[in-house]
Design goal:
244 residues, mainly alpha, two-stranded antiparallel sheet, 77% helix
Length: 244
């Protein structure tokens, strides 16, 4: 019995802890947190597009102020942080579980039965690890510095807000950071390419009528969203270099 099952047993939820720590439970939790993170990316992208407004950061800073002070959005944000942690932990646990089962005949048979490509699972583990490192660095560089008050202030019409635009633009003026950011978006694209449809499959949402549409939607999403993020630092860097 796992520590989670032992913790939840006194309140009658031991079965839930057992489910979450089971192989199926881990995959379901991965799918649910993955879909939640997928739904967040377009919203994050829309906000980041303000960086291309050429208004000195006004729209982006006001957007950031709203996102960090609206109570509903703050609640969603904390849910997002928890989802990132759970998704990463469950992903690493599944990766280790698959690695330990590799080479065992029963594991191969089960893998083939559920239609999972073991090589794809291995790639997802490596890609997920790279993304986790990127997310942690990204949050340290921007989110944590904002929380610690290590960013300048800006005033718009008498409203004083934290100036997140300046550190972001400074980072995007560094070609090394731009390359790292763009490569990370490529990693996200590959991760989404497999993860989008896989999440629906894990939840049993398969149908001969809808699955092909979900697959195409996932492929389009995995290209457009990362490309949208990647364009921003390229545009900002090009603007600082006078390319356009």
């Amino acid at each position: 019995m796992s520590w989670l099952t032992n913790t939840l047993s006194p309140v009658g939820l031991g079965w839930f802890g057992g489910f979450l720590t089971s192989s199926i439970g881990k995959k379901v939790l991965m799918a649910l947190t993955g879909l939640f993170l997928i739904s967040f990316l377009p919203i994050h992208l829309l906000g980041n597009l303000y960086l291309m407004s050429n208004d000195g950061g006004r729209d982006f800073n006001l957007y950031a102020e709203f996102m960090t002070h609206n109570k509903i959005i703050k609640t969603v944000s904390y849910t997002l942080y928890l989802s990132i942690v759970l998704h990463a932990i469950q992903g690493l646990l599944l990766w280790r579980q698959n690695a330990s089962a590799r080479g065992q005949n029963y594991a191969v048979k089960v893998t083939r039965a559920v239609g999972t490509n073991p090589r794809a699972a291995t790639r997802m583990g490596w890609l997920g690890t790279i993304l986790l490192i990127f997310i942690l660095l990204h949050m340290y560089q921007f989110w944590l510095q904002m929380k610690l008050g290590n960013v300048p202030m800006a005033s718009y019409g008498g409203e004083v807000v934290k100036d997140l635009y300046t550190p972001v633009m400074t980072a995007f003026a560094d070609p090394i950071f731009v390359v790292i950011y763009v490569v990370s978006m490529l990693v996200i694209a590959f991760h989404l390419w497999h993860g989008f449809q896989s999440a629906f499959q894990t939840l049993g949402l398969n149908h001969s009528k809808y699955t092909p549409f979900i697959k195409v939607l996932g492929q389009v999403y995995s290209i457009l969203i990362p490309a949208g993020f990647a364009i921003i630092p390229i545009y900002v860097y090009g603007d600082t270099m006078g390319w356009w």
